[in-house]
Amino acid sequence: MSSSVSKKRGSVWWKILLGIVISVFIILLVAEIALRMFISKQLEDDFAEQTAMTGVVTDRRPEIGFGPVPLLFSVASGTVPSVDVSTPSTLQITHPEGINSDPDIKGTPASDIHITDLALRGPEGPVAGRLTVQTDISDDMMLAQVQAAMHAQTRMAGDGLAGSLLQNLVKVTDITPDPETDTLDIEFTDGAAHIVIRPTAVDGQLQMEATEARLFGFALPDEISGAISRALRSSAADLGGGMSVDVVTVRRGGMHLEMSGENVNLRDMG
Fold first, then answer.
1. CA 94/CA 102 separation, integer angstroms
2. Which end of the chain is more exposed for a tag (fewer CB within 10 A), N or C?
């Protein structure tokens, strides 16, 4: 009889222990979910804040993933080991004063971001120990950037030969990426002239090499190819927030960039 009582007591204690284990597991699971939601909300708020600073208001939110490692392990250190963020495109390109006017560029293209060692503590905001970004600058965005640069160059060129060409003849009307040659074909005045540019990544910087530039059989002024190169480099720099440009490839429909940086404040990114 005592053996039967011992078995019943052992069964009760086993059920109690199992109940405790299940309760602790549920508590940890709820805490893990809550922590992921909290960090996701913080990153979403930062994205919305940065988007608003570019002049765009959107209800679209980034997709955020933390991988299989529980975030509860990060509470003590205040550092999340890995975060993947896919941000939607918020790009808006308009011509407020007509189709031939200076374009107004707001927002940013879609990006895939991988972060390691994301520090959440401190008043400066979330800081990534290392961050890599992959994004595509569409031909429409490149065209708008170049057109804006050419408008600025026109104002600076004055009444000289370069200024006269820019004002009366040299109007950028199209950009066509050529993946086979890794070049960008810049069209002027509906095909009256072309300039071919090859983008490359050199020592962390986006370089633009003009391989051909002619207008009605005459070489275009250096100011024109220089303005286009500066516009495209500036576009990449604005997106990367000063990060290193590691890879650049020309794809159908745009230019693909892969960038990286260390100790990057997410609020400082473009």
1. 9
2. N
